[in-house]
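Reviewers of the previous submission asked for a worked example of the structure-prediction workflow described in the proposal, so we include one complete record here. The input consisted solely of the amino acid sequence. No template or homolog information was supplied to the procedure at any stage.
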Amino acid sequence: MIVGRDREIKKLNELYNSGAAELVALYGRRRVGKTFLIDETFEGRICFRHSGLSPIDADAQTNEKSRIKAQLRHFHRSLVSFGLKSEKEPQSWQDAFYMLEDLLIEKYDDNSRILVFIDEIQWLDTPKASFMTGFEAFWNGWACHKKNVMVIVCGSSSSWILDKIINNHGGLYGRVTYEMKLRPFSLGECERFFESMGIEMSRYDVVQAYMMVGGIPYYLKYFERGLSLPQNIDAIFFSQTAHLRDEFNRMFSSLFNNADTMKKLVRTIGSKHRGLTRAEITEALGISDSGVLSKQLNALIAGDFVIKYASFGDSKRNEHYKLVDPFCIFYLNFIDGGRKGAKVNWINIEDSQKVTTWKGYAFENLCWNHVDQIRNALQIGGVSTVESLWSKRGDETAKGTQIDLIIERKDNVVNLCEIKFYSDEFEVDKDYHLILERRKKMLREMLPKKATIHITLITTYGLKKKGYFGDFVQVVTIDQLFS
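From that input alone, the workflow returned the following structure tokens.
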């Protein structure tokens, strides 16, 4: 049974029943459930399907010509499995798509809907293969003229789909009839997913699971009923047979031709919680600021690994690039660079300072991924807003400060959000009260006189009604993040 994706399923069925030729581009992060969505939505209705051969499994010594031949041979096997009678393998992608046309014409000449699904399409586009030439000829020369044809192309490399299909400036310019980006599960969908697997888990633990693997269904399925959260984390990440111990390397190898470069870039950006500016990135890596770097950063943004944001009050020249993918953050903090064979038990390190610090940052990151739920909890779902964070370095004349989330609203209210991950209700003591007063004063100096500041707490279980609890105008709990 598929969990969530109601909106996507409805739209896909509308496109299927549109009565027009449709070219649909489906993309999203690796393991997010794109193939499963198509399989479940169109069970029994796919007339031809094919998935490219993964570059991870290719021999490093294999030359370009051999890789092209292997992809064509694999495509031919898919054609034969769907009824093609020709035993001759295609010698080019134009030949391959001519064969696909012949198969579809021969099998489906009654004007019924013809659904073609090409999965992991970016893997077919090997160097010097001229794959796009063949695909463009297939769509422009035949498929787009058939009102009963629907072609879905799917890829985990969001940047490839955007560059080569959606924003194509050649033969496919303006040809995509619908684009769909499949995003990771929200907290509420993660909870429903665990329930569908018969796993009993408190919302406090669902939040922690999300902070480790994000809302990626493929990762969530490795959690086992009957095990505690620490036991599951040990089994998934730290045991001898841990399912996700090598996922970081496999994921980048499957998405990028320059996997080592992209991993180094991610490690660099992830070294600072606030992220880094372009100038800081180039200095840390010892590289020049170039169009190549822009392309790499845009690929990470398209893949939902990184976001670009302007720190509150700063110009766009000082935009930061911040790592937000929960799995990558957890991996880089606790697995990357660790000694092979070193025994780690999560339950034994869970109370360490390193884990406590990570939980605080990871919960902030979770809140950034659930801004819509926070806006709804504040009853401003219909109000235009701009979200940012503020990281101000101190100097000889003034202390620095960090504000986790600032929500600037069209109704002249600014929410100064404090984000706290606690196992109990949060208590405001005198020291923290003074910190809040200073942050509010610093923020006030940056705002128009007409703006009102609401200090807002986003936390697990709410606020203790003692001490300086009145500092907070509004409180958002994790239950509201599950909405």
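The radius of gyration is 25 Å. We consider this example representative of the routine output the project will generate in years two and three.
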